[in-house]
Amino acid sequence: MRSLSKTRVAAIIPARMASSRFPGKPLLEVRGLPMVEHVRRRALLCKEFSEVVVATCDREIAVAVERHGGVVVMTSSAHKAASDRVAEAMEGLQCTHVVNVQGDEVLVLPDDLQRIVQAIQSERTESAWNATASIESSEELEDKSIVKCVVSRSGRVLFCSRDFHYLPLKNGSFEPVRKILGILAYSCEFLRTYLRLPRTPLECIEQIDQSRIIEHDITLRGVEFSGGYLGINEPREVPLVEKYLLEDPRQRSVLKQIL
User: Fold this and answer.
1) Positive/negative CA dihedral, 120, 126, 128, 129
2) CB 36, CB 122: distance < 8 Å
3) Stated pTM of the model
């Protein structure tokens, strides 16, 4: 890929059928559209992206996305992490940075995606960013399907885990513990470096890509989103997402735009 002097941020949506907790979930139909198509259309509503593509190793996903007019990059089936799939797809794009929008972030808001692009544009000396949101209840804190993190006062992500034993502060806040959302961003140069870094102990234990960045002493900047809508990681979360789409005003507005 040729060198680019201007910041160009592409959105890449990694998706595969072989999810360990919910096989086939990218093609789960939600309000008449496959889940991955919801995510793609929401990313398209963020006008800051130079392009939006789905990266997959599965023809079923590719066919579904292309049927709706989307762009697909076919990738290897050997990748162990979403970041690896995003890195392969990145090489065919003309961009300086990529935002990895996980294919299960079905409720992501275009305005929030704009926040992470703005962080990239204002912090070009940094290498990696991750969306975060406030923890709203003890149940969220205890839910091991939700990745949590500790964020420093300057906004640096210090530690990630699925399992936190943490009491709310006197004012009812869980800060500095926050939810990690499935929206990560990297400079293209750093993402190539990331692939050469050896996998780290905490990354292997909990299967959290961000741990490889943190354990190698690389700054991971937190980008605060307006809210932490849940993604679909397990079948039990499908009716909760459907409820948000029906009852949350912002979600109803975005749904109307993409259908």
Assistant:
1) negative
2) no
3) 0.92
